[in-house]
Amino acid sequence: SITTQDKSKWNAxxxxxxxxxxxxxxxxxxxxxxxxxxxxxxxxxGAITGNDNPIEPYxxxxxxxxxxxxxxxxxDLYHPLSDAxxxxxAMTFPANATGRVGVLNTGFWGMDVSPQTYTGSFWINxxxxxxxxxxxxxxxxxxxxxxxxxxxxNTTISNYHIGTFRYSQVNFTLENNVTAPNANNTFAITxxxxxxxxxxxxxxxxxxxxxxxxxxPNGLRxxxxxxxxxxxxxxxxxxxxxxxxxxxxxxxxxxxxxIGPLENRPGRIGTxxxxxxxxxxxxxxxxxxxxxxxxxxxxxxxGYSLDHTSYPLEFMDEVLDEILAELExxxxxxxxxxxxxxxEYGHPEPYNITYVEIGNEDMFSCTYTYRLNYLYPALKKAxxxxxxxxxxxxxxxxxxxxxxxxxxxxxxxxxxxxxxxHYETPSFYLDxxxxxxxxxxxxxxxxxxxxxxxxSVFQLDTSTGYVNYSDPPEIHxxxxxxxxxIGEGIYMLSAERNPSLVTLMSxxxxxxxxxxxxxxxxxxxxxxxxxxxxxxxSYWQQHLFANFRGTHTVPVEGELNPLxxxxxxxxxxxxxxxxxxxxxxxxxxxTLNFDSxxxxxxxxxxxxxxxxxxxxxxxxxxxxxxxxxGSELPQPGNLPSNATTPVTMVSSSAA
Length: 655
Ligand code: AHR
Known about the structure:
The chain is α/β, with parallel strands linked by helices. The protein has eleven helices and 30 strands. The strands form six sheets. An eight-stranded parallel sheet has the order 2-13-16-17-18-19-20-21. A seven-stranded mixed sheet has the order 1-25-26-27-30-28-29, covered by helices on one side. It has a five-stranded antiparallel sheet with strand order 3-6-11-8-9. The radius of gyration is 27 Å and the shape is globular. The structure holds alpha-L-arabinofuranose. Residues 23, 25, 240-242, 360-361, 454, 508-509, 519 line the site of alpha-L-arabinofuranose.
């Protein structure tokens, strides 16, 4: 029984409810949505090994670089490009070298090659060598097969003068017309040995980008960004996750090292076992938000790192200063020090930031109380219009794992909010339909918001019933299954039912490179070859819920279990959306009684008889939404004769 016409029963939906959680995990950034094709581009850091190898992040490496022909390569630490990028590669061409010489980069487990314009650059010099000062050299760059002798595209920079005192940047484009049959391709820089035999050149910061999402320089891998964009995301939570915290205070995400020219960004050992270039830095995140019309939920480092070290209270002023400078960089006008820097880097207008998250999962620390008490009032005073989200509340709801003796409750501030995380089993989520219904009343909150910044079915149900975050990994599904999507769907209903409380929610983690990962399951699984990207069952669940948003929830009465639902109207179009999750294993006949007429019905379902069905690299399309047809839909004869507006049913079901 559906009441759509009585506006006194309408509740405004949360406009940005469904969003994206992004941190660099599982090579989601470098080697993922950050479109850079060159791996280890400045010889700064590696651990770009395969899944069979232990993950040991390390600095200063020639990993992923291979000499061509009569070329010797060596890591060089004496010819820095910049303070941030001190390493280079010495390419030595012996006096008796012949043929083509140079180096190639094997990328992040290959490179997808398709018709488009690639844009690249590298820095090169011949410091202290005998290279004749007035001499010039032809330099050829190409994309080539790693399996055959095919060269897909190349261009030659003729008569280039390689400086003998300082680096110069060589810029080029590759206009490619072919599609390589697979992603086992490399990028090469070569010379004719007859021109360079006997010389040593130093190479630094090499970069190659395909066309990016919305054409942003230094931008996003198009196909992955488009998969995100298709989710109509309302917000982006970034840059962590654990990755903002760092494995130690020294290794935290330092916003000020992620801005400006790439040669000024040192990168860091990320939390998840590999080098982060920070090419995808603070401004790239905020530009990403603008390009997808989302708001940022910007996480700031709050003085706690994953080795359980916390800034002591007497040093918290340093943490506060770091955050205030970051916010000035994002929001200050150009008369401020950091606002001017932002303008210098290409964005004179302040960014639009309305949510800031103070830390990440601080329930793992015992020090959040003093850190938040120090930070929150000062930040709120400086930015009264920002809603600051805390990451620890109490031990009962959504975790509270630190062993702090009697346990800690960190009250949620009026005007603030709490980011609760849930990595759970399907059966946990089956009980969450009413999870948030009484939260405010029971806890006497009046003006708070709940962010569900990370949630997903992390583990399938087992006889023990509890979630095991460590081994054995086998109980964590490699890919989200339909049963995962159903559980997550119930949790999404719980949020949609409480739109003034739960305002933002994001599945996590969102992206996984199949070649190196430490966490499953993820929403999208990809590799270098674009047409092998897996849009998982959970992705499609997000897609269904987020694409049928509506402006107001309306009352829908009926018998719950196995069906659960929420009904939403769209005020401007008059459409009504009924989102149903069937938690049973059978088809349930439905009769819809409306208080007014609807003239047409269509429906989309994510459905299978097998609750464990999943999309994978071996079967990309095992489970996808499909339109309901014929007798699956309420028939026109069943609709009232005064029908006037459309209704859409969305369901996910194991039936
Ligand atoms: O999503 C993976 C990790 O899970 C996040 O980095 C962290 O916040 C949570 O524990």
